[in-house]
Amino acid sequence: MRRKIPKSSREEINRISADKQDRILRHLSEVGALTIKKAAEDLGLTHSDARNQFGNLRVKNAIDCVGRCKDGYLYTIHRDNAKSYREQLEEIQEDEAIWPETIARFRKHAAPGAVYHYRDEDGARKRTKVTDTRYPHICLFDNGQAYSWADVIRCSRAGVNTLGEWPK
Question: Is 28 within the bounds of a domain?
Answer without folding.
Answer: yes
